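Q: Joint fold for the lines below.
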Amino acid sequence: MTGLFTPDAVATTLERVRAATPLVHNITNIVAANSTANALLALGASPAMVDAEEEVEPFAAIAAALVVNIGTVTAPQAAAIARATRAARAAGTPWILDPVAVGALAFRARVALDSLAHAPRAIRGNASEILALAHLHGGNAAPPPAGRGVDSLETAEQALSAARGLARATGACVVISGATDHITDGRRVATVANGHPMMTRVTGLGCTATALAGACLAVEPDAMAACAHAMVLIGLAGERAARHAAGPGSLQVGLLDQLHHLTRHAVTHEARIAIIAD
Amino acid sequence: MTGLFTPDAVATTLERVRAATPLVHNITNIVAANSTANALLALGASPAMVDAEEEVEPFAAIAAALVVNIGTVTAPQAAAIARATRAARAAGTPWILDPVAVGALAFRARVALDSLAHAPRAIRGNASEILALAHLHGGNAAPPPAGRGVDSLETAEQALSAARGLARATGACVVISGATDHITDGRRVATVANGHPMMTRVTGLGCTATALAGACLAVEPDAMAACAHAMVLIGLAGERAARHAAGPGSLQVGLLDQLHHLTRHAVTHEARIAIIAD
Amino acid sequence: MTGLFTPDAVATTLERVRAATPLVHNITNIVAANSTANALLALGASPAMVDAEEEVEPFAAIAAALVVNIGTVTAPQAAAIARATRAARAAGTPWILDPVAVGALAFRARVALDSLAHAPRAIRGNASEILALAHLHGGNAAPPPAGRGVDSLETAEQALSAARGLARATGACVVISGATDHITDGRRVATVANGHPMMTRVTGLGCTATALAGACLAVEPDAMAACAHAMVLIGLAGERAARHAAGPGSLQVGLLDQLHHLTRHAVTHEARIAIIAD
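A: Joint structure:
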């Protein structure tokens, strides 16, 4: 299985996305809606942001993947998430959860936990979010210091044990974003070391990583490989953009340019992906 | 009448927008709200995004034009659209409909069809959307393959016959966006060949075209001319931006810069507008 | 007290924001959500956009500052604003109101006026918005010509008298944005002359100024100084960006780059801040 966690495999997933232009259904927040749609287009996928309760069921069923992000969740959107995730599961549409700031607020914690009953294929968050979700799923209170919104006060390494447990308990692959990303299905662990520190100064890049993982889930049946590949693709686009960026504004723009131009050659030479437990 | 479909007439509309800075009322989606507001400002208009049910009636009445986009329509926004379009018609405010992904989802199809009763001055979509709306308005099911969200699987040419019928049935000018845009009032047909293929990799540029058409409707009483002029202006800004853009991120930014700097000279020398049926 | 209104004091506030990375809770509009989050990150703060009625009370209590912007207010968001501002007051979280287009529409006027009962630390608007809010707060109708959305048809100077009255009546510091910004607590008046005319062609920069003022309120207890410092910081970033910008699209991007790179040296040499009444 380790052949899935190689630069070559990442390049193949990129080519599959471009060939299939998968329709990616996003239920997302008002901050990242534009930038994630643009990132999906730049990668080669076909994004659609649909979150009306009246529309999500049929759309999740026809989509190639569903991305659920609770960054600005409201009660109507929570109802839509419940319907969409149930419909995705019934239709066999792979879906991924981004539990933004889940440890800070009880309402979104409830939304995230309820959604786990509908069998997400993957979950992506920073270390604080994954730690909080794992604790909540285990019936415990989220650990402090979860009150810092989307900032992660833990390192990815510290959260890895919690992530493995969450993956085993839910059946979802779990991604912990950080300077080095960790991706686990509960048994295997892969790491991705692409990216650039300035990416933390651009809003919504975590949400974008989740959305790209949705596109990869549409073409790669091994969810852990799909997620790891997506983390390489956004990290690589970000580090290439950072070489020319004058600051975080330019980085946000350049990342889209780089995603659009990523080649098999660039991916195979610059991907930093490894499997550390198999 | 053909004098309306000339590069000179486009330049005159641009100058009128800049002189009048028309207040353009937008009821739009969460993806394109920022980019369409910026495009209206860059063109020289004054955008306002107002979609609360409590606010749309007085605002549609004082606005110079109303733009209705159903890209992320919800039940409350649908109620606001019903109120706003009725108020616009009563006040004589010209309004334009962007039936985003109308063929894919029954809820938004209902919202779009209901709005047609309030006499839009124009409708702009891609070929799939116009085909779907025409079929739905005729009492038929939307044709497959409408399930691809905002992607257009048809060419503008194929949808022209449906567009002419829709225009005659509704009294609205109909714009079919594509590599070559087609604009018809049911009798006349104009084409616009400005634009660049990379524009399809930037989210919300269809929505932006509709918003710019709203600004032009505020200053040009011939709706078909107003729409054709708007398609030239966005296409020209896009193709000029594409000369310098490193990818779709840069293109989105450069398009705003170019809209801001468009001159009569550039428009008269580079507009590719023609009338093919009069 | 005049030492607070010096380039040195602005640089100190900037350094304090970067050292504290204050969590800034935003209840804002769909147009400016992305750009204000990015501006807060570029400055060095930690933004979170949270506007669900179920979430705003605990979040306003743990945040270092709250920013309330009524640009696309709806009934559910109005309910959230009422809860959040009450909770902020109770918790001692400083909060700032951006009364976008308050003179044009009765619904948002009611929302803005009701919020004033919860003791905002500051209010920022253009001259038309401040004039309208002052009139409404005094029990009068908003003056014409308030019907132009976010455009300001008055000059900051004309609105100063109304702003002083509003500040005295509410206890909030009042900022009138314009070519020269005026900031008053009812007694003192400061001016900030940084900025660039092209900033008026970028959507949401007023909203961004308000959000940055929120970040400064989190670290500077003198609300009038915090607001004046924020106006310097955004104005300076904007004028530095304008030197290299090809148009309003580039300006929006460059402003974020410049915010990220602002130094004590740049601020102390280029801030144009003065106190004109003490």
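Q: Anything notable?
A: Chain A touches chain B through 33 residues (CB under 8 Å). Chain A has a mean pLDDT of 94.
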